[in-house]
């Protein structure tokens, strides 16, 4: 039974195997799609399309291979093709607006200055998370992608090279440049909040 | 007046890096991402013990990675998504 390939399986068996092996990746896959498109509906469409493509090629999927990396690769390619087709850019969050918002809060809210100094409070944690997300969203999509794959999803350089179809050396240099760019954006924010890095 | 500088002082280190710091800077991401070999890791750690500026760069880069992995909120998958994927697959022959 376990030796059976997709081609010999009944549809019920194939569906059951597909769900058991590939649906557990739904959460990270949706998160990746959301970070690429920055839009819930687009992420939804992209994930559905990815699973349908994966289903079509499931006969060629070998049990025990890296299902997560395979799905991420399909999704990344769908994203590139989709956006090329529509010649539409992902929704952009205007970083300067977000930055301006925090700056004006800083200036106008002189009465509540002490509230942000306790790093343990949940709201500060949220604020940091929001700021990291805003900074990340302003990065070019190639930079955003490597940071998410590496730091959020924990893929190895080798897996990233396979997902993105680029040499490992390019993964390394892209990640390095992406981090420099993110650092720059976050340092600006840290300074505006009065932290000297 | 002639100044004699010995070869030893002028020697540029191997592998095309002018300084140990440059070599270590190049390893930084690999070390943080757990991709460095044991030898590279040892070289890196030894250098950090004697170089404050590389030590600080390492701290900053670790902090940056931690900001993404520890603070970036995960979005919640809509409940309907898994159901609609299953439904579409069942329709597919």
Automatic annotation (TrEMBL), chain A:
Q: Which UniProt keywords apply?
A: Sigma factor, Transcription, Transcription regulation
Check the record and name the InterPro entries matching this protein.
RNA_pol_sigma-70-like (IPR039425), RNA_pol_sigma-70_dom (IPR014284), RNA_pol_sigma70_r2 (IPR007627), RNA_pol_sigma70_r4_t2 (IPR013249), RNA_pol_sigma_r2 (IPR013325), RNA_pol_sigma_r3/r4-like (IPR013324), WH-like_DNA-bd_sf (IPR036388)
What are the RNA polymerase sigma-70 region domain coordinates in residue numbering?
Answer: 26-88
Instruction: Please give the Pfam families that the UniProt record associates with this protein.
Output: Sigma70_r2, Sigma70_r4_2
Q: Which GO terms describe its biological process?
A: DNA-templated transcription initiation
Domain RNA polymerase sigma factor 70 region 4 type as annotated: residue spans: 131-181
* An annotated Gene Ontology molecular function: DNA binding
Similarity annotation: Belongs to the sigma-70 factor family. ECF subfamily.
Q: Could you tell me what this protein is called?
A: RNA polymerase, sigma subunit, ECF family
From TrEMBL, chain B:
UniProt entry keywords in alphabetical sequence: Metal-binding, Zinc, Zinc-finger
Per its record, how is this protein called by name?
Answer: Putative zinc-finger
Q: Which GO terms describe its molecular function?
A: zinc ion binding
* Source taxon at top rank: Bacteria
């Amino acid at each position: 039974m376990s030796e059976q390939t997709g081609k010999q399986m009944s549809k019920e068996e194939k569906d059951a195997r597909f769900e058991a092996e590939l649906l557990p990746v739904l959460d990270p896959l949706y998160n990746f799609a959301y970070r690429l498109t920055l839009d819930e509906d687009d992420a939804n469409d992209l994930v559905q399309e990815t699973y349908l493509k994966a289903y079509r090629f499931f006969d060629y999927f070998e049990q025990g291979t890296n299902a997560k990396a395979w799905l991420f690769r399909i999704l990344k390619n769908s994203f590139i093709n989709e956006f090329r087709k529509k010649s539409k850019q992902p929704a952009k969050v205007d970083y300067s607006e977000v930055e301006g918002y925090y700056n004006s809060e800083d200036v106008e809210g002189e009465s509540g200055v002490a509230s942000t100094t306790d790093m343990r409070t949940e709201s500060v944690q949220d604020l940091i998370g929001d700021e990291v997300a805003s900074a990340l969203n302003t990065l070019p999509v190639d930079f955003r992608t490597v940071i998410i794959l590496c730091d959020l999803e924990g893929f190895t350089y080798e897996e990233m090279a396979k997902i993105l179809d680029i040499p490992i050396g390019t993964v390394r240099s892209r990640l390095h440049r992406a981090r420099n760019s993110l650092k720059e954006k976050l340092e600006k924010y840290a300074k505006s909040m009065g932290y000297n890095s | 007046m002639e100044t004699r500088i010995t070869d030893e002082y002028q020697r540029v280190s191997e592998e095309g890096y002018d300084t140990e710091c440059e070599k270590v800077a190049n390893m930084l991401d690999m070390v943080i991402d757990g991709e460095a070999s044991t030898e590279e890791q040892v070289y890196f750690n030894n250098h950090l013990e004697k170089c404050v500026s590389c030590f600080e760069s390492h701290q900053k880069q670790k902090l940056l990675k931690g900001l993404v992995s520890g603070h970036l909120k995960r979005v919640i998958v809509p409940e309907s998504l898994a159901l609609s994927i299953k439904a579409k697959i069942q329709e597919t022959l």
